[in-house]
Specification:
Number of domains: 1
Bound molecules: magnesium ion
Strand content: 15-25%
Distance between the termini: 35 Å
CATH superfamily: Creatinase/methionine aminopeptidase superfamily
CATH class: Alpha Beta
Helix content: 25-40%
Radius of gyration: 17 Å
Order of helices and strands: HHEEEEEHHEEEEEEEEEE
């Protein structure tokens, strides 16, 4: 069952999502050579506390960080650590907030002085795939139209599409129905209706689509150790154009 949010519920989600986006952007800005991923986590923790909100990730199935920070060949679920950010790295920062009973989930990938054209292209294509997904998140389409849009962009660019991790419904819980793969044939699955809220999150690899989980039980790596990028927005289905909820306060 895909939940339809009432107007009041959507208003509450707008708030939690705005918080998530604000923290995402602040952490992204703080990424520079020499900082550790744990320092980024501590910064996020401080910002969330100031907002009176909670990290939806901290303690989730035992996850030890407030944010996920995944570096280079790490796809998702990287644990903040003493790892030092270096010039040429890419960092995906994934972050969820719970506030007033609703969750907002968002991610971005930041380049740290990257000059490798392939890596720049990976980032550009992944962001473009998210935009294409959001364009399909409208009333009248079917769920797999979103999936197909990501696949089309990724395949045209020759990127590996991570299949083991997917987008998802979101609301009172971080992970609600349905699952939203980043590949698939169009025109399938449930019809999209106003008030559905989804976390859309293409994860694309420069090389193989295959991934593996590290011995820490969390960090997902590309099998060929080539880089991976991840962008995510929480959106609300609407007529004509989806509403991106994870937009930061101006
Ligand atoms: Mg998510």
């Amino acid at each position: 069952m895909i939940k339809i949010k009432s107007t009041a519920e959507l208003d509450r989600m707008r708030v939690s999502c705005r918080m998530a986006a604000t923290v995402r952007d602040a952490v992204a800005k703080a990424i520079k050579p020499g900082v550790t991923t744990l320092e980024l986590d501590e910064y996020a923790q401080e910002l969330i506390a100031k907002m009176g909100a909670k990290s939806a990730f901290y303690g989730y199935r035992g996850f030890p960080g407030h944010i996920c920070v995944s570096v280079n060949d790490e796809v998702v679920h990287g644990i903040p650590s003493q790892r030092i950010v270096r010039l040429g790295d890419i960092l995906s920062v994934d972050f969820g907030v719970t506030y007033d009973g609703f969750v907002g989930d968002t991610a971005t990938t930041v380049m740290v002085g990257v000059t490798d054209p392939d890596v720049i292209r990976l980032i550009t294509v992944t962001e473009k795939a998210l935009t294409a997904a959001i364009e399909q998140a409208v009333v009248g389409n079917r769920l797999s139209d979103i999936s197909h849009a990501v696949e089309t962009v990724a395949t045209a660019a020759g990127m590996g599409i991570v299949r083991d991790f997917v987008g998802h419904g979101i609301g009172r819980k971080m992970h609600e129905d349905p699952q939203i793969p980043n590949f698939g044939r169009p025109g399938r699955g449930p019809k999209l209706r106003a008030g559905m809220t989804f976390a859309l999150e293409p994860m694309l690899n420069l090389g193989t689509e295959e991934v593996e989980v590290m011995s820490d039980g969390w960090t997902v790596l590309t099998k060929d150790r080539r880089p991976s990028a991840h962008f995510e927005h929480t959106v609300a289905i609407a007529e004509g154009q989806a509403e991106i909820l994870t937009v930061a306060e101006k």
